[in-house]
Amino acid sequence: MDLARCLAPLLLALACLLVAQPGAEALRCWVCSSSTDVRCRDPFNRTHLSDVDCERARAVAGYGDRAYCQKTVTSINGGEQKVLRKCVFSREALDGRCFDQPQSSDFLTVEHCSTCDDADGCNAAPGPAPAALSAAAALALSAAALAAARLLR
């Protein structure tokens, strides 16, 4: 029996394992300002808005830093809130802290500012599906056992 026929099931199992591993997705963030688009206000209205691939924006701009999504809520003289959602880039892990938070002053109040790279709205890369990986591993072991049995004949 030739080696190619014995290795075919093993290669098929390997291909199944690779398919079961989803690829990493780029960080996608909402980029808008309630100053120019009321849908950016809270509660957030995603209708007819599209998110932005921050990794691509970072590469185009030439940043070598890590991408994060940031949301900042400010009010001027205690009046209407302004919401700004954008991509930010930092060499250091932000752990929820803001990258370029505006400073509160006599007329500007920062009510909220946070960053994320794996929370709701941040679209972090998904982990592998456990059931798919288990099935692929079982298939790979079965194929390897079958190939070994054929070689021993």
TrEMBL record:
GO terms for biological process: regulation of synaptic transmission, cholinergic; sleep. Keywords: Glycoprotein, GPI-anchor, Lipoprotein, Membrane, Signal, Transmembrane, Transmembrane helix. The keyword Signal applies. It is found in: Membrane. GO terms for cellular component: side of membrane. Residues 1-26 form the signal peptide. It is a lipid-anchor; GPI-anchor. This is Protein quiver. It comes from Gryllus longicercus.
